[in-house]
From TrEMBL:
Keywords: 2Fe-2S, Dioxygenase, Iron, Iron-sulfur, Metal-binding, Oxidoreductase
Keyword Protein biosynthesis carried by entry: no
GO MF terms held by the record: 2 iron, 2 sulfur cluster binding; dioxygenase activity; metal ion binding
Name of protein: Ferredoxin subunit of nitrite reductase and ring-hydroxylating dioxygenase
PANTHER family to which the protein is assigned, alphabetical: FERREDOXIN-RELATED (PTHR21496), RIESKE DOMAIN-CONTAINING PROTEIN (PTHR21496:SF0)
InterPro entries given in the database record: Rieske_2Fe-2S, Rieske_2Fe-2S_sf
This protein's record includes keyword Mitochondrion: no
Domain (Rieske) ranges: 5-105
Cofactor(s) required for function per UniProt: [2Fe-2S] cluster
Amino acid sequence: MPEWVAAVKEEDLKEEKIKVVNAGNRQIALIKKSNEIFAIDNECPHEGCPLKSGSLEEYTLKCACHNWGFDIRTGENVDTGEYIDMDDPKVETYETKIENGIIEILV
């Protein structure tokens, strides 16, 4: 059953920076973009590379290992580059909310 887990103070998450938190036995990358908070698994489904090491381009988080791109709003793969060896690779995303200045994640 999903539950809300306190992750980090809102003031500790800077615009367009990636902050990894542990929530519900998962490593989740939090990203603030245009004053919205997005939460996405910190692991690329291709070879398990940490997405935090990648780069954010608009709403696409690019994996540093093989340049796969994932939409931080949906988790959908938007650019597999040359490495298309999986059917519909996707990264799990999570709902977020802010309660009393604390970002919470539904996991």
